[in-house]
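Input (structure):
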């Protein structure tokens, strides 16, 4: 088989899974790591990984069980194997507090349902992120827990009952925001939900939809996006994604993989950006014990060493060399306050803080006046016919 025909295989592990309890202070983040290889890593290097494990007195390589001392003893062998294999890595971090803040913003301030929110404040990404950051600043733990508890209610009718109370609590804390306009935009949106909670849809009644609120799904979507980038870069198809078995979310991830991999390949243009929902088309999704997959074991090593680094641990030389190789050959998706802020500044910092010609300022003022007129008309129209903005032509 020619080299250009060799497909991509990915081996996935995770850490920080707390299920629906996203308030665990000991695990504020959810991580997913993947070893990404050209060809079947398990088939090509499985025997050598098992031999290395035997040298450590084990049948498989589990970083947490070996610890830094045990891992250091086999670090050089692992480094040489990973270097020879050309393995790459992908790491996804989901900060649970940031996830909750964005989830709350999406539920309460979707301009397709909340007629008090202007279209641009929800659909133009930098403006949406900025407002979500402002909302996050006023969310305290009690509000967060009330919202999350409601979101996980079995019936949408019961979940919707928490909306007025959460909105009133948020509105009572808007005074801590430093700018007047954010207080106005968020306050008017909250008032609308308090008055019209039945207009908000929370998608709680199907189990897969409810599980979709958890960090696992965001991390999985980030993983598929990362694999699609590898696919474009290497001009190769993703053949198989092998994930560590995890019964609680196995069916959900199978469903979401099928949805993304079978989606239409069309490019969607929306609010100045381009998207494609299709990711890893034609790939298989396999759930397997890490004991059976050396590739998953290497993803586990990547996760564990990265976690030790975040904890400020001093890594011995061999372990440090493995981590450096993984970071050098890795891509990182950081769905957190810090990570998203960094992306925002890299992409839109000049727009936010750079000079703006008077002509563009005048044009922007006209657009905002038009948007405000449309918003007020939308609110008025809803009072007449009860039809949500997204349902109109």
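Output (sequence):
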């Amino acid at each position: 088989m020619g080299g250009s025909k060799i497909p991509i295989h990915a081996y996935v592990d995770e850490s920080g899974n707390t299920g629906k309890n996203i308030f665990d202070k000991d695990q504020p983040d959810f991580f997913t790591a993947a070893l990404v290889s050209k060809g079947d890593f398990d088939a090509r290097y499985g025997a050598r990984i098992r031999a290395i494990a035997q040298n450590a007195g084990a049948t498989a390589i589990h970083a947490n069980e070996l610890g830094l001392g045990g891992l250091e003893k086999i670090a050089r062998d692992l480094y040489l194997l990973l270097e020879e294999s050309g393995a790459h890595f992908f790491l996804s971090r989901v900060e649970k507090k940031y996830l909750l803040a964005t989830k709350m913003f999406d539920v309460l301030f979707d301009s397709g349902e909340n007629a008090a929110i202007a279209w641009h404040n929800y659909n133009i990404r930098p403006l949406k992120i900025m407002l979500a950051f402002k909302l996050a600043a006023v969310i305290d733990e009690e509000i967060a827990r009330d919202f999350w508890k409601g979101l996980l209610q079995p019936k949408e009718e019961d979940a919707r009952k928490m909306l007025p109370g959460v909105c009133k609590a948020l509105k009572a804390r808007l005074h801590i925001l430093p700018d007047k306009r954010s207080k106005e935009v968020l306050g008017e949106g909250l008032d609308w939900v308090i008055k019209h909670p039945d207009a908000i849809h929370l998608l709680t009644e199907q189990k897969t939809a409810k599980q979709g609120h958890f960090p696992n799904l965001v991390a999985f979507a980030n993983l598929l996006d990362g694999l699609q980038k590898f696919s474009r870069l290497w001009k190769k198809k993703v053949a198989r994604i092998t994930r560590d078995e995890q019964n609680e979310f196995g069916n959900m991830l199978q469903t979401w993989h099928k949805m993304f991999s079978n989606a239409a390949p069309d490019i969607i243009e929306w609010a100045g950006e381009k998207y494609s929902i299709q990711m890893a088309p034609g790939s298989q999704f396999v759930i397997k014990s890490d004991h059976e997959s050396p590739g998953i074991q290497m993803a586990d090593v990547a996760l564990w060493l990265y976690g030790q680094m975040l904890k400020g641990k001093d890594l011995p030389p061999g372990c440090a060399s493995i981590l450096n190789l993984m970071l050098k050959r890795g891509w990182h998706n950081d769905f957190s306050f810090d990570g998203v802020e960094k992306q925002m500044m890299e992409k839109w910092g000049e727009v936010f803080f750079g000079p703006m010609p008077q002509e563009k300022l005048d044009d922007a003022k006209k657009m905002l006046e038009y948007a405000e007129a449309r918003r007020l008309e939308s609110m008025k129209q809803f009072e007449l016919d009860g039809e949500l903005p997204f349902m109109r032509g």
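Notes: Residues 66 and 370 are 63 Å apart (CA to CA). The first strand starts at residue 8 and ends at 15.
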